[in-house]
Amino acid sequence: MKSNFDRMLSSEDVMRRRATLLQRIHIDGPLLILLLTLAAGSLFVLYSASGKSWDLLIKQATSFGIGLVSMLLIAQLEPRFMARWVPLAYCLGVILLVAVDVMGHNAMGATRWINIPGVIKFQPSEFMKIIMPATIAWYLAKRTLPPTLKHVGASLMMIGIPFILIVRQPDLGTSLLILASGTFVLFMAGLRWRWIISVIAAAVPVAVAMWFFIMHDYQKQRILTFLDPESDPLGTGWNIIQSKAAIGSGGVFGKGWLLGTQSHLDFLPESHTDFIIAVLGEEFGLVPCVPCCCCTWR
C-alpha cells in the first residue's frame, strides 16, 4: 500500500500535469473554473425561472458549449494573428450596421437584425461589443502612450461611427455599451485626466441634445420610470416594482429553489431573461446576488 507521502506526490503530479495541459492550450485554470461554476449556477436558476422548461435549459446549455469551444479555439491564436484581422472585422461590422440601417429586419418597433429567411438571423451590433474594444486597442498599440489629442480624436471617430448607427436602430442600451467599451480602452491607455474631465463636462450638453432631438418617447419613459417607478405603479413602473418586491421577499437567504412566488405566479415578465436576477434574489437571497451583480457589472 502507498504511504501518505506517496499519495501526496501522486496528487501533486496529477495537478502538475493538469496545469501543464492548461498552459499548453493557453487557458487560465482559475478563470475556467469560475466560468464553468457560473454557467452551472446559471442553468440551475434558469430551470426554475423558466417554469422547469427543459427546452430552454438545453438551448442555453448548448450555447454555453458553443461558447466554450469557441473560447478554446480562439485561445490557440496568437495575438499578432488576431490583430491583423481586427481592422477587417471592424470594417465588416460597420458595413453590416449600414446594411441593417438600409435593409434590416424590423421587429417590435426596432430595426436591429439582418434576416436571411431560412438561413440565418443575427444582430450585427452584438459583434461590435467585442470588435470595438479590440479595434481601439489595435489602433493605440501602434502609437505612443499616453495617446495624443490626434489619436484620441481618431479613436473617438472610430467609436462614434458604430455608436450613431446603433442609436438609429434604435438601440440605446447597446450603443451606450459600445461607447463605454471603446472609451474604457482609451482610459486604460493612460488618457490624461484633464481630457477625461473635459469629456465628462461635454457629455452634459450632448446628453441634453440627445434627450430633445434623438431619443424616442419610450426611451425617455424608461429613464423616467427607472428614476421613479412609483410614478406609474400599474403601468410602466410595474416591472421594476415587482422585481424589487421579489428581491425583497427573498431576504438574506431566500425562499428556496423552485419556491419563488413572484416569478412562478407571473408577476415578473420575462423572468428567465430580463428579470433573472430578481428570481435569483427571491429564491436564494441576498448572499448570491452580490457576487453575481459584481460579475455582471464587470
Report on the structure:
It contains twelve helices and three strands. The protein is mainly alpha-helical and 298 residues long. It has three domains: 4-74, no CATH class; 79-208, no CATH class; 225-297, no CATH class. Strand 2 (110-116) and strand 3 form a beta hairpin. The protein starts with a helix and ends with a helix.
* Low-pLDDT sequence parts: none
| Cross-sheet strand order for the largest sheet | 1-2-3
User: How far do the termini sit from each other?
Assistant: 49 Å
Q: Give the amount of beta strand, in percent.
A: under 5%
Mean pLDDT metric: 81
Give the SSE map.
Elements: H1 4-24, H2 29-49, H3 54-75, H4 79-103, E1 105-107, E2 110-116, E3 120-122, H5 124-141, H6 149-167, H7 172-188, H8 193-213, H9 217-227, H10 238-250, H11 276-284, H12 286-297
Helix pairs in contact: 2-3, 4-5, 4-6, 5-6, 5-7, 6-7, 10-11, 11-12
Which key phrases capture this entry?
mainly alpha, 298 residues, three-stranded antiparallel sheet
Short description, anyone?
This protein is mostly helical and 298 residues long. Helices cover 70% and strands 4% of the residues.
